[in-house]
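Pilot study result, target chain (259 residues):
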Amino acid sequence: MDLGLRGKRALVCASSKGLGLGCARALAEAGVDLVMNARGAEALEAAAAAIREEFGVEVTTVAADITSEEGRAAVLEAAGAVDILVNNAGGPPPGMWTDWDRADFIAALDANMLAPIALIKALVPGMMARGWGRVVNITSQSVKSPIPILGLSNAARAGLTGYVAGTSRQVAGKGVTINNLLPGIHATDRAVSLDSGVAEREGITIEQAKEKRCATIPAGRYGTPEEFGAACAFLCSRHAGFIVGQNVLLDGGAVNATL
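Predicted structure:
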């Protein structure tokens, strides 16, 4: 399928590895030039070099913390006028509700709610003026089904979801769509971290922790960054212009819900 994206320009945040890298690679395969951002310069440059070599697109890299004002300023200066924004940031640490204080919540909101909103406010007006744009926010399945040990993530990502629900409908008439992708567990460093925590708490191996989690997923496995990236690329495509303000689960059926 021709996604109609060749020659477009995208900013993909936190894209040196994991789901962000999956999205960057899928967009590059569709012919999109990239601005890639991550905090770690070494991994970012390696990922960018591989994409340039494999897909022949232009890739600009910005090693910066997208959750800080200084980091966003550097990324926005390098990005310029982009057609596509993929918002992504690592989730806050797991824990119990008794563990968190105000500073923990502020950090979670900065990373997983306020930073994406700031980038939307900075880049969507230009998309509207040009008559076309796509924003995809990587959130979490916890928006639809809260995960008790990820209360910080539940709260911050739900806030972003509420913001998108209203804002997406205000900009759709100008050719700009905003949607959210809600990943369940995928084979990334985040999964390793969560499985390691389970293994430590329960006195089992990481492999056993993964097997236990896979047993709760109807698909019987973890998702891959490649299939997640493909879903992102479709939402950015010319075929997705009538998809507005939606929350798309990619969780292998783990969330047991009718809607």
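One observation from the pilot: The CA atoms of residues 33 and 169 lie 27 Å apart. A full batch analysis is planned for the follow-on phase.
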